[in-house]
Amino acid sequence: MRKIIVAAAFFAAFGAIAGPLGLNKGMTLEELNKHGSFTPSPRKFVYESKNLTNGHPDFQSYTAIVTPAHGLCKIVARSQNIESSSYGTEIEERFKDLISALTGKYGAPGKQYNFLRQGSIWNEPKYWMMGLLKKERILSAFWWPPENLNLPDSLRGIHVETVALSVSHGFIRLDYEFDNASECLDTLKANKNSNL
């Protein structure tokens, strides 16, 4: 009983344990701006920042979806641009490093994909980046129910994917979705379609 009282006192004094990148589900834009300098994007309820107090050195920008009714529901982190050979070696290595780090915190991803779509002409190893650029090669990982049922911090899921900018440059995108994301994303969709 004494441990429960001490724990309750701790959380009352210091707040809940921070979620991914130091951010929590339901944060208002005002609360979010205590952790970074978020500015509105062209899309309503979508905000962008080049830095986060508890960000990661491999990432160069962060996007947050925040609605008035739901607060923060999704975070997207974009890595620095990665220079790579046409074989994609450097991007694959950075992807594996990130998956390893996330596995250390959240357990192994429920699903991983590393394949070239059937019928693609970019099927030689030297065309790895070209396949990625043409969206015919997939290298991604998911932490998502039902395989990952014990994600902490009110997380609904995590997604990591590789993106090519050219045959020599690409980046890694890391998405965190909280368990209020469905309603939040419905609000974005309704706002987008409101003038149809």
Fold and architecture overview:
This protein is an alpha+beta fold and 196 residues long. The chain has one domain (2-192). The protein has five helices and nine strands. Strands 1, 2, 3, 4, 5, 6, 7, 8 and 9 form a nine-stranded antiparallel beta sheet that branches. β3 (59-67) and β4 (71-79) form a beta hairpin. The longest helix has 18 residues, at 89-106. The termini are far apart.
Summarize the structure.
The protein has 196 residues and is an alpha+beta fold. The protein has helices spanning 2-14, 29-32, 89-106, 128-133, 181-192; strands at 39-40, 46-49, 59-67, 71-79, 82-83, 111-116, 137-143, 155-164, 169-178.
How many structural domains can be distinguished in the coordinates? 1
**Large-scale geometry:** globular
**Biggest pleated sheet:** 9 strands, antiparallel
Q: SS-based structural class?
A: alpha+beta
Instruction: Give the distance, in angstroms, between the N- and C-terminal Cα atoms.
Output: 58 Å
For the residues shown, what is the average pLDDT?
A: 90
C-alpha Rg (nearest Å): 19 Å
Q: Helix content range of the residues, please?
A: 25-40%
Strand content: 25-35%
Give the count of helical stretches: 5
Topology, number of strands: 9
Order of helices and strands: HHEEEEEHEHEEEH
- Low-confidence parts lasting 5 or more residues at pLDDT below 50? 1-16
